[in-house]
Specification:
The chain has a nine-stranded parallel sheet with strand order 3-2-1-9-8-7-6-5-4. Helix 6 links the parallel strand 6 and strand 7. The longest helix is centred in the last third of the chain and has 21 residues. It contains 14 helices and nine strands. The two termini are 33 Å apart. 47% of the residues lie in helices and 11% in strands.
Length: 323
């Protein structure tokens, strides 16, 4: 089973990716938070820093691009190809209202003729350049019924992989993924599929694999933020199946690994970002997910959330992650 790390805007940048790669394994590849090219033909400093090869040494990395203009996509693809990348990914999944209102991200799914024309231009040119092309998509803008026509469009183009998050844009992350639509995609897709959505444990993966035994790739997002070792646990489950019971209490060495991972992320942000206030904002955002590992520790998690100074933050973390 190939496990990919989903792009999470504001969280899974190069500082986080490097720390995760140093301490945890079994990730087939990382996808960057999206690059949003515009007509100024210039990447922001944040976008450039995130994809610089020197900031991603040893990682298998796929830059993701968000746009509905073929010429802008190809310009950005050319920039990342100059840096040595061989694959780019199109974002058709972002549900943000400000993105969707401009017919980008999941909003692009609402104008299927324009999407088809875009894919025709982009696919042909990327093939000419020798670049691989993948797509991360939702199953529609407003209704799951939209996906039948969308899949017919995707089937016309040779994608490296079609990553499907089986929710529509208006779902955001509410409710449950529509596995019936994903099942239809498994039967009818001409491209290799990768599943994305609500895999938070090895048990979730086992249930998914029992229903979809021939799907060989999953993309993990929130699950990996809540448990950085999730891909390793899935790998063990793939080898041992249900015979390996989930661990109720992590051994000491796992808590130590988590603490070293946290400290690497923190120190990386302190080197990359000016001002403790900005660093604390980034770390608190991470704890909105990581805090799921600590049931019953709500008082300590609240101290992390309310910390206004770095000293207060580190003291609270040392109480919840002691070595």
């Amino acid at each position: 089973m190939d496990c990919y790390f989903a792009p999470m805007e504001g969280i899974t940048g190069y500082v986080f990716r490097n720390a995760h790669h140093r301490h945890y394994g079994k990730i087939r590849g990382y996808f960057t938070p999206f690059i949003a090219p515009n007509r100024s033909r210039k990447l922001t400093s944040r976008e450039m820093n995130d994809i610089l090869p020197e900031h991603n040494q040893g990682l298998s990395l796929v830059p993701q691009i968000l746009t509905n203009r073929a010429e802008d996509f190809l310009w950005a693809a050319g920039k990342v190809q100059e840096l040595g990348y061989e694959e780019v990914n199109l974002n058709l999944g972002c549900p943000s209202g400000t993105v969707v209102s401009k017919y980008r991200g999941a909003g692009f799914l609402a104008v299927s003729k324009e999407l088809d024309s875009f894919l025709n231009t982009v696919s042909e040119e990327l093939h000419r350049r020798g670049m691989r092309f993948s797509v991360k998509t939702r199953i529609g803008k407003n209704s799951p019924e939209e996906f039948e026509d969308l899949l017919q469009i995707f089937n016309q183009y040779p994608l490296e992989r079609l990553i499907i998050h089986p929710r529509v844009q208006t779902d955001f992350y509410r409710g449950h993924p529509n596995l019936q639509v994903f099942e239809d995609a498994v039967r009818n897709s001409e491209n290799p599929l990768c599943y994305n959505g609500d895999i938070f444990s090895a048990e979730d993966w086992i249930a998914f694999k029992e229903r979809f035994p021939h799907v060989e790739a999953v993309m993990l997002g929130r699950g990996l933020l809540q448990n950085p070792a999730l891909a390793e646990e899935i790998d063990r489950a793939a080898e041992k199946g249900r015979k390996e019971e989930g661990r109720k209490v992590l051994p000491k060495e796992e808590w130590e690994r988590l603490k070293h991972f946290h400290d690497d992320v923190l120190n990386g942000y302190r080197e990359a970002i000016s001002g403790d206030r900005n660093v604390l904002f980034k770390m608190k955002e991470l704890w909105t997910y990581l805090g799921e590992m600590f049931p019953g520790k709500e008082r300590l998690l609240k101290k992390i959330k309310k910390a206004g100074r770095m000293e207060e933050y580190t003291e609270a973390v040392e109480r919840i992650l002691p070595l």
